[in-house]
Write a structure and sequence with these properties.
Low-confidence stretches: none
Number of domains: 1
CATH class: Alpha Beta
CATH superfamily: Aminohydrolase, N-terminal nucleophile (Ntn) domain
Largest sheet: 6 strands, antiparallel
Number of helices: 8
Helix content: 25-40%
Shape: globular
Order of helices and strands: EEHEEHHEEEEHHEEHHH
Strand order of the largest sheet: 7-8-1-2-9-10
Distance between the termini: 55 Å
Mean pLDDT: 92
Radius of gyration: 17 Å
């Protein structure tokens, strides 16, 4: 029998909130395919949820609904624990609009599995070389509050990779994702890399291309005339 999907793959992520701007987001990578479509869930001015290990996207959707109704990150996590009969196969990280965090690493996750839940962030992973991966992500996030959230999250993910990342590559399918929301109901950044041997490096390449355009795209949505004027003034 082959590998059961969702059991043998290894993942690490950083879920965070910017205290300066209220932005919420997640950076994540895995040895499986399509992590950006299955694992990160963010809603503007509500919260961010990463659901990994034996991923159930319903948990991300449910958690955001709970936080929208006023549940804190820890309160929403308790409801997930109650509702999910497979909770020991899950790994969950939540950050709410107020910067409260909560996380759970199920007992049936691949070793090393664990998390750090601190102010405005959760760093976590499963199937990793050790706790140092989560520690590196958490430290980078906490030490760089001045950065825009998308840059801060990706640097944290890069720090986790530099600290050793996954213990092994269970599959040739590698992916990564970066999802950030500001005050608009749509995403500020939504980037995904699939089927790539170095997905975090590719995510960096794409973000560096996008970064000079982020504010322009946001302005264009609300005031395309002003956006065009700004573009013409910049000569781009």
């Amino acid at each position: 029998m082959g590998v059961i999907p969702g059991i043998e793959f290894n993942t690490f992520s950083i879920t965070g909130r910017c205290a300066r701007t209220g932005m919420l987001g997640i950076a994540i990578t895995t040895s499986d395919i399509s992590v950006g479509a299955r694992c990160p869930f963010v809603k503007s001015l509500v919260g961010a949820v990463a659901t990994q290990a034996s991923t159930d996207p319903n948990l991300g959707i449910f958690a955001l609904k709970l936080m929208e109704q006023g549940y804190s990150a820890s309160g929403a996590l308790k409801q997930l624990e109650i509702s999910d009969p497979h909770i020991e196969r899950r790994q969950l990280g939540l950050v709410d609009r107020n910067g409260n965090s909560a996380a759970r690493s199920g007992s049936m996750n691949n070793e090393w599995s664990g998390h750090i839940a601190g102010p405005n962030h959760v760093a976590m992973g499963n199937g990793l070389v050790g706790e140092g991966v989560a520690q590196a992500m958490s430290k980078l996030f906490l030490d760089n509050p001045e950065l825009d959230l998308e840059e801060r999250l990706l640097r944290a993910l890069e720090a986790g990779l530099e600290a050793g990342g996954e213990a092994k590559d269970a599959t040739p399918h590698h992916s990564s994702g970066l999802l950030v929301h500001g005050s608009d109901p749509f995403s500020r950044v939504d980037l995904r890399v699939d089927e790539h041997p170095t997905p975090v490096a590719e995510l960096r390449r794409i973000l560096d291309i996008l970064t000079p355009r982020i504010e322009y795209f946001a302005l264009r949505a609300g005031d395309p005339v002003a956006a065009q004027a700004a573009k013409d003034a910049a000569g781009t």
